[in-house]
Amino acid sequence: MRIPPRLKFLSILITFLALATFILPASAGPKNVVTLQILSVSDWHAQLDPLSVFGVGNVGGAAVLSSYFQADRAANSNTLTLTA
Question: What pTM value is reported for the model?
Fold first, then answer.
């Protein structure tokens, strides 16, 4: 019976990973843990200027968002800012 190449590769990979768990010492884990903060904006639609909301005043806008991000970045230097 001929074993397909993909199945042969998969079986070798699984065997290797199983053996590696016994060979590698527990101290081989990460030595320095870094706390990463991710700031994200999604569906912003470029609301650059604040909106005037009746009874509340001006809300939102790029300046407000920027000040929030600056404060969060100052609190954690390991920050990624993403937009979509």
Answer: 0.52
